[in-house]
Amino acid sequence: MSISFIHTADIHLGLENYSKINPDNGLSQRLVDYLNSLDVLVPTALEQTVDFMVLAGDIYKTPNPNSTVRREFTRVLKKLQNQKIPVVIVLGNHDQVNAFGKAHAFSVFNILELDNLYIVDTPRLLRLEAKSGPVQLLCQPWPLRSHYFSDGEAYPCQTEDFQAELVKRVERRIGELAEAADPGCPLLFFGHLLIRGARFSGSEGMLSLGKDPVVDKSVLNNQRFSYVGLGHLHDFQELNHGESPPIVYSGSLNRIDFQDKGSAKGFVLGQIERSELKLQFKEVPDRPFLAIEIAVDTLAEPTAEFIRQLAEYDLSDAVVKISYTVAEGVSALLNWREIHQALQGCYYLVSIMPSRQPGSRTLRLEVNEDFTVEKAFAEYLKINSALSGDAQKLNRLLKELIREAKPL
Question: SS in 3 state form for the chain?
Answer without folding.
Answer: CEEEEEEEECCCECCCCCCCECCCCCCEHHHHHHHHHHHHHHHHHHHCCCCEEEECCCCECCCCCCHHHHHHHHHHHHHHHHCCCCEEEECCCCCCCCCCCCCCCCHHHHHHCCCCEEEECCCEEEEEEECCEEEEEEEECCCCHHHHCCCCCCCCCCHHHHHHHHHHHHHHHHHHHHHHCCCCCCEEEEEECEECCCCCCCCCHHHCCCCCCEECHHHCCCCCEEEEEEECCCCCEECCCCCCCCEEECCECCCCCHHHCCCCCEEEEEEEECCEEEEEEEECCCCCEEEEEEEECCCCCHHHHHHHHHCCCCCECCEEEEEEEECCCCHHHCCHHHHHHHCCCECEEEEEEECCCCCCCCCCCCCCCCCCHHHHHHHHHHCCHHHHHHHHHHHHHHHHHHHHHCCC
